[in-house]
């Protein structure tokens, strides 16, 4: 399967007169791990919302498997947000079982008897894979930040999505925990053959995890009209040939845009 | 080492004493005022002595009424609590259904939210005469007054609570393949129930207000009816214990609702303590 999973052709996104994204072109094959970096205000989250189906492009086309992107979120695209993506009123096990229940019991979204037992076993196996096998009966509020993100990942993966979207999933975690989470995500990605899009603030994280690094940045900065020009993909690199000089160059460009955006606010 | 006053906290024992202090002061002030007035005029009815209050409580709570043969306090309480319970139950159900629908479904919100907003501005007491005309002087009009009095505010409150649920959760549920009904049933409804209890607790006070008001105007039993009946004889020895009793009932109901919420929705309160 080497066909293009995602095709972005000449996509623009505008809100009124302010342009968020312009001239976006991108083709992603199945199994790639794309990390997306860029300063806040450069349309990373808008792009993610377009991949989720929460927003459509103002111009251009966005194709998933050659067909237009559905206009609402669906089970082929899993998501892990930075916060709030687990259900606080369900135990860890129920949080993961939920994904199986809603497709196996269309009316009630609840399984009973043997079907329920089987779904719970599958969910428990998934949770063991992310290292939460010991915390099945706890509520999310009793978990640490890192454990909550492990739960959110397990929750998404139980649906076997084609694409996994990660929106700064480790931004709120301690550095040591982050390293553990990186190892987990890489392990799960290698085992499952998923296609991953991961937004991060941390350029090093982007280099370390991805097979492909996408830098969202504004190529033109106009101090008189900061929203006149949108952001686009300024670097699209296959990772593996990362040179320190290049990393510095990208960091410099991104920092300049970051200062510009903050000053013009 | 003197700390700022905003940084000084009482210990557990001190907090308990401080909390009781206003009650004690009120009691002392009453006893003193009552004594002063009764010394000046033994026939004074405004601030009866503690002993006459106790006698009145004994009379209404333990001795059968000479006319009806009922124990008056308990009969009044039963009548009032039945009306209150019916009003609270109907208002909660209406608020839950409306709040979920307007909070979750944009089309329903567009259709109903402005109407509910206006409805909540109608002064319930102003339409009480209409209720009496339409529903008669029986139980129904009193229950309807309580419902009209608190349901619109609860509907607005619950709509707000539903809309405050993080959108991340709703998106997540959709990426897990849930349809709108499943999201309502498994994600939104369970998280709305503890918030419904919160809303109910806040509206207990207004609910009692409308209950007493309706009973004061037209009833043949009930706590509000009794208070307004004996007012004619300046029977402060009955009115004051009734007021304390109503307050106690409201306080205990609030406590019970909090207990139910903590027992049934432990996850809700864990989250609150951390936040």
TrEMBL record, chain B:
Biological processes per GO annotation: cellular response to sulfur starvation; transmembrane transport
Localization per record: Cell membrane
Main subcellular location of this protein, as a coarse class: membrane
PROSITE patterns given in the database record: ABC_TM1 (PS50928)
Entry-linked InterPro entries: MetI-like (IPR000515), MetI-like_sf (IPR035906)
SUPFAM superfamilies (alphabetical): MetI-like
Source organism, top-level taxon: Bacteria
Example GO molecular function: kinase activity
Domain ABC transmembrane type-1 positions: 81-261
UniProt KW Nucleus keyword: no
UniProtKB keywords: Cell membrane, Kinase, Membrane, Transferase, Transmembrane, Transmembrane helix, Transport
Membrane topology: Multi-pass membrane protein
GO cellular component, one term: plasma membrane
Segments traversing the membrane: 84-108, 115-134, 200-219, 239-257
Keyword set includes Kinase: yes
Family, similarity comment: Belongs to the binding-protein-dependent transport system permease family.
Protein name as it appears in the record: Lipid kinase
Native source species: Solimonas fluminis
């Amino acid at each position: 399967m080497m066909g293009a999973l995602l095709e972005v052709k000449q996509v623009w996104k505008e809100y009124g007169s302010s342009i968020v994204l312009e001239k976006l072109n991108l083709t992603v094959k199945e199994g790639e791990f794309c990390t997306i970096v860029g300063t806040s205000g450069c349309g990373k989250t808008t792009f993610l919302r377009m991949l989720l189906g929460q927003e459509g492009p103002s111009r251009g086309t966005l194709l998933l498997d050659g067909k237009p992107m559905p206009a609402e979120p669906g089970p082929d695209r899993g998501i892990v947000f930075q916060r709030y993506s687990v259900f606080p009123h369900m135990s860890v096990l129920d949080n993961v079982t939920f994904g199986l229940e809603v497709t196996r019991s269309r009316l009630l979204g609840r399984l009973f008897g043997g079907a329920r037992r089987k779904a719970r076993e599958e969910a428990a196996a998934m949770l063991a894979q992310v290292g939460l096998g010991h915390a099945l009966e706890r509520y999310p509020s009793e978990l640490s930040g890192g454990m909550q993100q492990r739960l959110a990942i397990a929750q998404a993966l139980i649906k076997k999505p084609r694409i996994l979207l990660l929106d700064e999933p480790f931004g709120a975690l301690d550095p040591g925990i982050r390293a553990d989470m990186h190892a987990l995500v890489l392990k799960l990605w290698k085992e499952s053959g998923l296609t991953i899009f991961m937004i991060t603030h941390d350029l090093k994280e982007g280099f370390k995890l991805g097979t492909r690094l996408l830098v969202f940045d504004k190529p033109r900065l106009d101090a008189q009209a900061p929203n006149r020009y949108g952001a686009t993909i300024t670097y699209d690199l296959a990772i593996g040939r990362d040179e320190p000089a290049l990393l510095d160059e990208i960091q410099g460009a991104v920092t300049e845009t970051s200062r510009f955006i903050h000053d013009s606010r | 080492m003197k700390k700022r006053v905003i940084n000084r906290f009482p210990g557990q024992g001190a907090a308990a004493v401080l909390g009781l202090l206003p009650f004690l002061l009120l009691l002392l002030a009453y006893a003193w005022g009552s004594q002063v007035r009764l010394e000046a005029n033994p026939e004074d009815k405004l601030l009866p002595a503690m002993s006459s209050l106790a006698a009145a409580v004994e009379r209404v709570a333990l001795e059968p009424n000479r006319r009806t043969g009922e124990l008056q306090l308990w009969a009044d309480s039963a009548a009032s609590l039945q009306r209150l319970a019916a009003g609270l139950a109907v208002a909660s159900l209406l608020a839950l259904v409306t709040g979920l629908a307007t909070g979750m479904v944009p089309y329903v919100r567009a259709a109903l939210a402005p109407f509910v907003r206006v409805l909540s501005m109608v002064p319930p007491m102003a339409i009480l005469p209409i209720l009496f005309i339409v529903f008669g002087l029986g139980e129904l009009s009193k229950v309807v007054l309580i419902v009209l009095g608190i349901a619109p505010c609860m509907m607005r409150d619950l709509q707000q609570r539903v809309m405050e649920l993080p959108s991340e959760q709703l998106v997540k549920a959709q990426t897990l393949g849930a349809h709108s009904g499943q999201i309502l049933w498994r994600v939104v409804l369970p998280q709305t129930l503890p918030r419904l209890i919160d809303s109910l607790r806040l509206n207990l006070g207004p609910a009692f207000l409308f209950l007493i008001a309706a009973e004061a105007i037209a009833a043949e039993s009930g706590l509000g009816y009794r208070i307004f009946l004996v007012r004619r004889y300046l029977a402060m020895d009955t009115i004051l214990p009734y007021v304390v009793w109503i307050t106690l009932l409201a306080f205990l109901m609030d406590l019970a609702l909090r207990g139910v919420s903590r027992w049934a929705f432990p996850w809700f309160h864990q989250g609150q303590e951390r936040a």
